[in-house]
Amino acid sequence: MNRDIGFILQVRLGSTRLPNKALANMHGVPLLEHLVRRVECSGLLEDMPLIVATTATSREIERYCAQRGLDCFIGEEEDVTGRVLDAARHFGLANLVRLQGDDPLVCPYGLREIVAAHRTGSAEFTTTAHASGWPVGMAAMAFRTDALEREYVRYGARNPDRLKKGFLPLDEVVFSSRFLRMADRAATGFFVTVDYPEDERLVTEILTRIDPARSGYGFTVEQVAETLAGMGDTSNHHLHEPFSSARGS
User: Fold this and answer.
1) Is pLDDT at 248 greater than 70 in this prediction?
2) Are 98 and 50 in contact (CB under 8 A)?
3) Average pLDDT over residues 184-202
């Protein structure tokens, strides 16, 4: 298996807003399992490892990985970026695709686009970010590991406490970047990341209506948009307002 690039899925059970959400039952399947199945549907795991980066207080995730046959790395509880970098170093990844454990609907074809663009381009950072039109919760990002470490060290020297509050703030650091834009703007502008109980109910309803166990896990951004449209008023933007204001989504 090629170890030049791999997926690192950052996840833990210690969420303050929605504890244990990674293993929450969503239409009969744990959130984390939906995410793994979406990544499997990309077809990239034949050539790339999927490494779950978790913490010592999240032993249930470690057990899940053992049962699922996934590589698991135990790292920093508070420093998310440090945990991701430590996992990349441990497994010898020159490049990494960062996945977030609250995004069970991450887009398989978006992952294929990111990996292809990152492998063939010269950018240090490649993304299908919401700023490029992708829905929040369906996008991902790839980094050159040495570039991520460089900016992590630089930023940490100035703002060490900030790194304990979340991932390295990408709007405050400098990478050579490539943004992969979403062609269908009609299918954008919604939030399907799972941060709050309302998000969990929303995404569970989407999964119930799409029923991927029957129809398959390759469903598209457009299908999610159509499902949301059929559900009526489902806006959860107000829950994520600081995020959307800061990011311009």
Assistant:
1) no
2) no
3) 81
Residue 1 above 70 pLDDT?
no
pLDDT-derived band of residue 247, with 50, 70 and 90 as boundaries?
very low
**How far is 151 from 146, CA to CA, in rounded Å?**
9
Structure tokens at 2: 């090629």
Beta-strand pair 5-10/50-55: parallel
Domain ranges (residues) in the chain: 5-247
Check residues 124 and 20 and name the one with the higher pLDDT.
124
- State the average pLDDT over residues 99-123: 95
**Structure-token pair, residue 218:** 């390759």
At residue 55, the pLDDT reads: 94
Burial 47-72 (b: 16+ CB within 10 A, else e): ebbbbbbbbeebeebbebbeeeebbb
Q: Are 81 and 34 in contact (CB under 8 A)?
A: no
Closest CA relative to residue 39, chosen from 52, 50, 29: 50
Does residue 154 carry a pLDDT above 90? Answer: yes
Tally of helices (H runs) and strands (E runs) in the chain:
9, 9
Strands 177-179 and 125-127, bridge-based pairing: parallel
- What CATH number was assigned to the domain covering residues 5-247? 3.90.550.10
Amino acid letter at 113?
E
Whole-angstrom distance, CA of residue 17 vs CA of residue 129: 23
Q: What are the structure tokens assigned to 76, written together?
A: 């920093």
Handedness of CA 246, 131, 37, 116 (dihedral sign): negative
